[in-house]
Amino acid sequence: MMRAADPQVDLGARDRILREATRLFARHGYEGTSLRMIAEAVGMQKGSLVYHFETKEKIHGAVLDGLVARWKDVLPQIVLAAASGENRFERVIAECTGFFLADPNRARLLVRESLDHPEELAARVSEQLAPWLDLVAGTIREGQKRKEIYRDVDPLAYVWQVVLMTLSSVALSDMTPGLFGGGEKRDGVADRMARELVRIARASLFTHPTVR
Amino acid sequence: MMRAADPQVDLGARDRILREATRLFARHGYEGTSLRMIAEAVGMQKGSLVYHFETKEKIHGAVLDGLVARWKDVLPQIVLAAASGENRFERVIAECTGFFLADPNRARLLVRESLDHPEELAARVSEQLAPWLDLVAGTIREGQKRKEIYRDVDPLAYVWQVVLMTLSSVALSDMTPGLFGGGEKRDGVADRMARELVRIARASLFTHPTVR
DNA sequence: CCTACCGATCGGTAGG
DNA sequence: CCTACCGATCGGTAGG
Fold it and tell me: pTM above the 0.90 mark?
């Protein structure tokens, strides 16, 4: 309480804690990350973490809040990309994959959270995801009326499957090189996966590939 | 040592331990599962677990071995489905999704392991997955020569993206109901996801939907 | 297969 | 933000 004297120091410390906690929770999970590990990564003592965040659980909550906040930052851009005319499809997909590729720990964190606390995450995320899901689903239905999109597409299920491909191909990217034969570079594999994801999403949606 | 007196009892105990350990590791992860939790679920004391498996790590290893063993059981059927003529595509997909739907903990365990120990899992799984990946990739290339399959499909990346959809849509199924609006039943959502997965996989592969 | 016990580490508190 | 400390629980051992 009463930390108004030098807020910049506090903010810096809080952010450094959250950055390292995000990385560690993503890598080792909530149970696999101890306060000591976080403190060591930040460069302070375990007890000092409790000065900034009272409990480990509150650090975890703040990490998830930060992830949602960053998603809210890009959401307007995605909505914009979805609304404007040129290359809507590619740009929406690029915005979404870019969000997770910019920091793969976001994908790892979301997948872990989906396994550890499914309902809590669904509740937390659905309000942030709802407008986006509705928008895309609505656009798909319009396309179906215009016969530009296959009529047997299940809009909601389609979007969610594409999201799952995006999430998991980034979150599990550490495993893919071993499966593609050792000969290939890591980035090369990630590139191939990203390209194939776009191709699958596109080819399974549009009745005519060149229609956008 | 020297447990030949009544192997049936030991086998039963080992299996009961592995069954509960599989469930708990899948639900709470390796770090989130204690020996006490496993012992309590099985109905014995913590120390007794160490009589059957020396360490927690060896229990974990045996759980993964069991998963691989069960995969090896269905692999022949998958290869058979892929080789025979009628409805090859649907049957291969059905065999794979069926494997994970029969016990969603298999999918959860694999996703967790991909996050916790990516390289170890890749090494462990690739030998079991390699013949299958090569088979499917080869079939795709044949189809491409016959112009039945889109020429811009990246066979390996395609198969892996479909595997990721299968895995993640089962492993993260606890989260989906909340995203589909509360009105729908759990099984209904799982059904829609499974159907859309097959549709996406099919529509993004074949140049003409009716060709098989 | 159980009981009793080990040192180490956990998340968190108290006081400065 | 640090030091010192708390009870609880961890994985594992010893002996029966």
Answer: yes
